[in-house]
Amino acid sequence: MFVAQTADRRRTLADLIDKYLADYLPTKAHNLSAADVRTQLAWWRAEFGHVTLDRLTPATIAEGRGKLAKRMTRNGTPLSGATINRYLAGISGVCKWAWKELGWLPANPVLSVGKARESEGVIRFLSDDERRALLDACRADHDPNIEVCVVLALATGLRQSNIRFLRWEDVSFEEWTLTIRETKNGQPRHVPIVGMAQGALQAHYDRDPTKQGWVFKGYRDGSPWGLHSAWQRVRDAAGLKDFRFHDLRHTTASWLTQGGAGLAQVADALGHKTLTMARRYSHQSGEHVRATLASIAGKLGG
Q1: Is 287 in a helix, a strand, or coil?
Q2: Where is the Core-binding (CB) domain positioned along the sequence (predicted)?
């Protein structure tokens, strides 16, 4: 049984958040969401930083969820359910660390609090004509990074952050796999590289004089490449409207379902922890992930 000690009655959520930001988050510095986590935790600190850890309960977290639901964006609209859930995920990471590694909490209070309802939104994916136009625009762009990046995104369904922070040590040319070390569910993934993506990645490796470090190198030494400007150029050159880089992931999912992949295969290929998101795409059955990914490789050829 957990009994609150004197230190637990003195330590506050602000103390815990400060320690998390100083000691733990820097070890996740290559995670694209680190800046977002800092923003989320700054809000929790401002609103509930005074709460001592012995009084940090699910009721406290639920109160925070209620306050978030009343917040407005810069456009004067309420925060979306997805945004609220990201704030909950941010404080959950802190509480899990305090529970599992520091022993400052008896459990993670966030786990007992229900999530906000999320809208499914509109799923946007490339038509065949749009896919050809986008790949043509990538080939014509002066930055070779963008073509390899887009091809990998379409061939694997990986998130932008997973691709941007790839290192050559994460690439196996013998097995044609990518190792994704930072994932949403905390488990490393090994993702097959298929079809046109193999040739694109091999050529990219051959062009790299260092053969080490970031796969997509930035213009400053030691920094990864920032794809925002290049993505905007090729997207506009291809005439794509209302299309985000993340929609490439949706496109891969739609190709998988067209190739016969089932619910579990889509979830496995895209790294979903549950089948909830995969249900938006999949309603058929298929075979192994590599086979289903290989089945859509021809889409990248022209």
Answers
A1: coil
A2: 11-99
CB of 99 within 8 A of CB of 108? yes
Q: What is the DSSP letter of 37?
A: H
Q: Which two tokens stand for residue 159?
A: 């998130």
CB contact at 8 A, 263 and 278 = yes
The CATH homologous superfamily of the domain defined by 6-112: Tyrosine recombinase, N-terminal domain (1.10.150.130)
Which position has the token pair 């799923």? Answer: 123
The tens digit of pLDDT for each residue in 216-240 reads 998 776 778 888 899 999 999 999 9
- Picking from 65, 55, 50, the residue whose alpha carbon sits closest to that of residue 13 is 50
Q: Which CATH architecture has domain 128-300?
A: Orthogonal Bundle (1.10)
**295 pLDDT higher than 70:** no
Beta bridge partners of 189: 180
CB 248, CB 204: distance < 8 Å? no
Task: Describe the crossing of helices 144-156 and 228-237 by its angle, rounded to 10 degrees.
Answer: 80
